[in-house]
Structures are given as C-alpha cells and as structure tokens.
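Re: the 96-residue chain
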Amino acid sequence: MASRWTLLATGCLLSGGLVAIFIALSFPELPLSSCTDVGYSGAEPPGGFEYYEFYVGVLGYSPDGGVNRCDTPIVTVAVGLLGIGSVVLGIERWNR
C-alpha cells in the first residue's frame, strides 16, 4: 500500500502534468491571466502570439500581436507542482 507521501507526490505530479498539458492546448488564452483591454482602430488587429518575458514567476505575453499585454502565473503553478511532486517522491524513495 502506498504511503501518504507517495500519494501526495503522485497527486502533485499528475496535477502539474495536467496543468502543463492544459497550457499547451490553450496557450494564447491562459487562465489566471490579467490582460489589458485596448481597443484597436483599424481593419484588423495584428495577429499572432508574442512572448515578452518570464520574470519572477510571471509570464508576459501578447495573444494578439502586441495590441494587448497579458501576465499569467499559471506556468509557475505547473512548474511548482511538478517540482514539489518530484522532491516529495524522491525523498519518499530515498527513505525506503
């Protein structure tokens, strides 16, 4: 039977993996994002995703080619869950 720590680590790894898959599937419109809402006066706004920076755990990007800017911590959440799960699972296996 698996211990509580193994179950916790597996849960963190699974959650982090699911969040990472979710990020990959819906990247231009990430959850937990705070975005500017700038109106664009023109025929069509410039299209395409633009990456700006990753600073202090927050990913900065533009989903519409530079008209609006979004900041999201969701990437840090995924990496944190994967890291916690890996460390706890490693410690659990080390103690066996």
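The mean pLDDT is 78.
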